[in-house]
Write a structure and sequence with these properties.
This protein has 3 helices and 4 strands. It has 91 residues and is an alpha+beta fold. Strands 2-3-1-4 form a 4-stranded antiparallel β-sheet, covered by helices on one side. Helix 2 (29-40) crosses helix 3 (71-83). The radius of gyration is 14 Å and the shape is globular. This is DUF493 domain-containing protein. InterPro entries: UPF0250_YbeD-like, YbeD-like_sf. It comes from Acanthopleuribacter pedis. It holds the Pfam family DUF493.
Length: 91
């Protein structure tokens, strides 16, 4: 029996949570939400956004819960994370 893929494990449409570490000098919460909506190709329904600074204040860790309609929106957002100079790490 084969292992389920990431696509198989995500029930859509439905909620999805992104965790992102960013350089706080490069992007703020408003800029992040705008960029994620632009990447997904539609205005996303953000259910919650929280953030906290790293111990030394060098980075911000965001937890972003959003309603996703189709898997391609997740792929587009992760592609934006990979291309962004402000995103240090994303899961």
């Amino acid at each position: 029996m084969s292992q389920p893929t990431f696509r198989d494990m995500v029930e859509l449409p439905g909620p999805f949570t992104f965790k992102i570490i960013v350089n706080p000098e490069g992007i703020n919460q408003s800029g992040l939400t705008h960029a994620l909506s632009e990447a997904a190709g539609r205005t996303l329904d953000f259910q919650s956004i929280t953030h906290r600074p790293s111990k030394n204040g060098k980075y911000l860790a965001y937890t972003v819960a959003v309603h996703i309609e189709v898997f391609e929106e997740i792929e587009a957002v992760y592609a934006w994370f990979s291309a962004s100079e402000h995103v240090i790490y994303a899961v």
